[in-house]
Design goal:
The chain is an alpha/beta fold. It is 31% helix and 26% strand.
């Protein structure tokens, strides 16, 4: 009996302790368990390859890594990256030398681990081969083995899924880095377990993030060059690459970005400055359809407000690059129109984290005091007082005009009235309202 202590992931265990089989993208191969010890999918040239290296090294018995598939994953190209890793290794920034896909950086591994993997493991490239041919190759190399392999999971980071679906979360963030940190934390803590087409996830439905100062910023774990390359090559490149789409092609060609800018210049108050990136005739059929589906620009009070809708959003890994690209696009449109920057709103219909990447997440469990500065609420302000045994709340607009008056017999009733008829305040202001109502209820009439 052989015991393997591995990280959780989207893989199956067989009976041959010498062979690991990689299925590229959505490709699946049906092999006898006597021909492999572990078999799993690879979608990305960073987290995915990191997981393969860690788990293969942990087995202590794997000698061969067999790569199978019929089509590399567009834009990410993990198959090409894996081959480049074996051929070239990594540079000083832990980037796979010669990899051409999106962000092929193994930042969670050491060079020692990578070199040990390259020296110890032999790559068997069966990409494009038929299953019968692959089985023949495996039997020639190592043969059928029928060992009992017992799997024990390493629980580096144990975070229980939320017990019910959470639908509709509003987050206010200071900037794009703050937005990523808050979104990631929310999904990790409140995500419901959902089995997607690409494996188990933690998911929140319809998460809306409002970014107050959306200027492009550098994320602490990503080089500026990586972010700029993403914007330059994928987000705003009009040429269609080898993959099935790029956002640049969709924005500039399919969605006619320049026409939208002309519309905004001719009619600054328009509600028709819309970019639709989803192509219904093709995108339900391709392997990797675009996640960002809709962009709308609105100019109000000489400020640009940008709203973006994602059908699917990996908030741990894709979110920073997406935010940077959107912030750069927002900045570009501001300059084109000669207007100031307003907010960016990101609506993620499925905001999720893949469970096999949760171990990468560094989540502070203890929230400590922070220095807060007073922030004006976009809906104005509230005054609360008692009169004739009633608790009264007056709601004023930012320019000091009275908007509405609440008059209730108890604090409980007032709390419910405000929650129903005055939605959209900043969360800290709701807390202040509750505190003030509590003080008034203690006073004698």
């Amino acid at each position: 009996m052989i015991i393997w202590k591995l990280e959780r992931g989207n893989y199956s265990i067989g009976h041959n302790p010498y062979v690991a089989v990689v299925e590229i993208g959505d490709y699946e191969i049906d092999l006898p368990k006597t021909l492999y010890g572990i078999k799993g999918k690879l979608f990305t040239p960073n987290v995915g390859i990191e997981k393969i290296i860690r788990n293969v090294l942990r087995t202590g018995t794997i000698k061969y890594l067999v790569v199978t598939g019929d089509k590399d994953v567009p834009y990410f190209y993990p198959y090409q990256a894996l081959k480049a890793l074996f051929e070239n290794g990594v540079d000083n920034e832990m980037r796979i030398i010669g990899a051409r896909g999106f962000n092929p950086v193994l930042k969670n591994l050491s060079k020692r681990e990578i070199e040990k993997f390259r020296q110890k493991i032999k790559l068997i490239d069966c990409f494009g081969k038929e299953p019968n041919e692959i089985m023949k190759i495996l039997r020639e190399i190592v043969g059928d083995v029928n060992e009992k392999i017992v799997l024990e999971h390493i629980e580096k980071f144990e975070l229980q899924p939320f017990p019910s679906v959470v639908n509709g979360v509003l987050i206010r963030a200071k900037n794009i880095v703050d937005a990523w940190k808050l979104a990631t934390r929310h999904v990790a803590l409140y995500g419901f377990k959902h089995i997607s087409e690409r494996g188990p996830t933690r998911e929140i439905l319809n998460m809306v993030v409002i970014i107050e100062d959306p200027k492009p910023m550098i994320f602490p774990h990503i080089l500026r060059e990586e972010l700029e390359k993403y914007f330059r090559e994928s987000f705003f490149n009009p040429l269609k690459r080898v993959g099935e789409y790029t956002y640049g092609e969709r924005l500039l060609v399919y969605a006619h970005f320049e026409d939208v800018i002309k519309k905004l210049k001719n009619s600054p108050g328009t509600r028709r400055a819309v970019l639709v990136l989803w192509n219904p005739s093709t995108d339900t059929k391709i392997l990797s359809p675009p996640c960002m589906c809709y962009v709308q620009f609105l100019v109000r009070d000489n400020k640009l407000f940008t709203t973006v809708i994602f059908r699917s959003h990996d908030v741990l890994n894709a979110y920073p690059f997406n935010l940077y690209g959107i912030a750069k696009l927002h900045e570009k449109v501001c300059k084109e129109l000669g207007v100031n920057s307003g907010h960016i709103v990101i609506h993620s219909i499925s905001a999720h984290i893949y469970e096999d990447t949760l171990s990468m997440l560094q989540l502070n469990q203890v929230i400590r005091d922070e220095k807060w500065k007073f922030t004006h609420d976009q809906l104005g302000y509230i005054t609360i007082f008692k009169k004739n045994n009633k608790i009264i709340a007056e709601h004023y607009s930012p320019d000091n005009r009275i908007v509405q008056v609440f008059e209730c017999s108890s604090g409980d009733n007032l709390e419910h009235m405000i929650a129903r008829y005055l939605q959209g305040l900043r969360p800290e202001h709701y807390i202040w309202i509750g505190r003030e109502i509590g003080k008034l209820e203690k006073e004698k009439c």
